[in-house]
Amino acid sequence: MKIVVIGGTGLIGSKVVQKLTQQGHVAVAAAPSTGVNTITGEGLDDALAGAQVVVDVSNSPSFDEQAAMDFFRTAGRNITDAEMKAGVRHHVAVSVVGTDRLQDSGYFRAKLAQEQQIKGAGVPYTLLHVTQFFEFVRSIADFSMIDGAVRLPPVMFQPIAAEDVAEAVVEAALGTPANTTIEVGGPDIFTLDEPVRLALAHDGDPRQVIADPAAPYFGVQVTERTLVPATNARRGKVHFDWWLANVPAPARK
Question: Number of C-alpha atoms within 13 angstroms, CB side, residue 218?
Fold first, then answer.
């Protein structure tokens, strides 16, 4: 089967391409670096020719609302047009658990618009809502610095390894279209401050992590269950403590 992975050179996409290839499928990594641009449309028709499935794990390069909205709307239209021409039978996309509950954020308003476009495009689809990746826990710390400390609301948090996200994406791509949203989270539930504190301690980072009920999450106030999926969500297998001990931290810039 030919499967085109938009964003196929990124964190999740590269893992998806590798897993699909190992299973004997023709997995095409579609990204600007491989000659496919979803904003201009360059290379899309050629990449999708003969494809049965399109997986979209791309993301806006900006969290600014207008830039993100423009990215998701333009890319969405171009991808749909190319899918219709190619006769693609299944569109798989990754979005974020809690998108509909984070609408005070301009970026998440853009993500919701992307989801609505997918649902109304006319191509059978599977939408995966995934929780925050382990790989972004350190970035959460960086973004949440207030008065010299990392301040985070101690709400429920169920992060997931990128490896497990890729497994869920591959399973969806090889299955029949669900035409609904499937939620995916990590195997363990923490409070948001806990894995951040563990990661910084592991790195020897001296920054203090404070559980502050009044602190925002990426500029948005959240409630106890904003960031976690329903109890019947698919769960990943990789535990945070194993990941922290075995996956090298990225080089600090």
Answer: 18
pTM attached to this predicted model? 0.95
- Of the candidates 118, 71, 73, the one whose C-alpha atom is nearest the C-alpha of residue 94 is 118
H helix and E strand count, the chain: 8, 12
Tell me if 226 sits within 8 A of 193, measured CB to CB.
no
> Which residue shows structure tokens 């938009």?
6
3-state DSSP assignment of residue 79 = helix
Give the tens place of pLDDT for each residue, 19-30.
999 999 999 999
Among 152, 158, 155, 130, which residue's Cα sits nearest to residue 139?
152
**Looking at the predicted structure, is the pLDDT value of residue 251 above 80?**
no
Helix/strand/coil for 102: coil
C-beta of residue 137 within 8 angstroms of C-beta of residue 199: yes
> How far is the C-alpha of 34 from the C-alpha of 152, rounded, in Å?
39
Closest CA to 168 of 120, 113, 249, 233: 233
Mean pLDDT throughout 102-109?
A: 94
The amino acid sitting at 40 is T
Query: What is the average per-residue pLDDT within 80-93?
Result: 97
When pLDDT is averaged across residues 109-122 and rounded to a whole number, the result is 96
Structure tokens at 196: 């951040």
